[in-house]
Amino acid sequence: MGDLLIAALALMLVFEGLLPFFSPRRWREVFERATKMSDGQIRFLGLTSLVIGLSVLLLFAD
């Protein structure tokens, strides 16, 4: 289980690094827009991400 968690973390870091590597200008624009969002909007995005992630895990987990 620990190995799977480390692999998932590593894969997340790879995906997180794609946009700043290939398009730093676009990444900066997205980041600037995110800093202007309200706390409620950021929480909603976080909750949506959590629900989607958990759903995918439940659908495809052994």
What does this structure look like?
By secondary structure, the chain is mainly α. It has one domain (2-60). It is 89% helix and 0% strand. The chain is built from 3 helices and no strands. Helix 1 (2-22) crosses helix 2 (24-35). The longest helix is centred in the last third of the chain and has 22 residues, at 39-60. It is flat and about 40 Å long.
Query: Radius of gyration, rounded?
Result: 15 Å
Q: What is the approximate shape?
A: flat
Main sheet properties? none
Share of helical residues: over 70%
N- to C-terminal distance? 12 Å
Q: Tally the helices: what do you get?
A: 3
Structural class: mainly alpha
Keywords summarizing the entry:
single chain; 62 residues; mainly alpha; 3 helices; 89% helix; flat
Mind sketching the topology for me?
Blueprint lengths: L1 H21 L1 H12 L3 H22 L2
Helix pairs in contact: 1-2
Summary of the model, kept short:
With 62 residues, the chain is mainly alpha-helical.
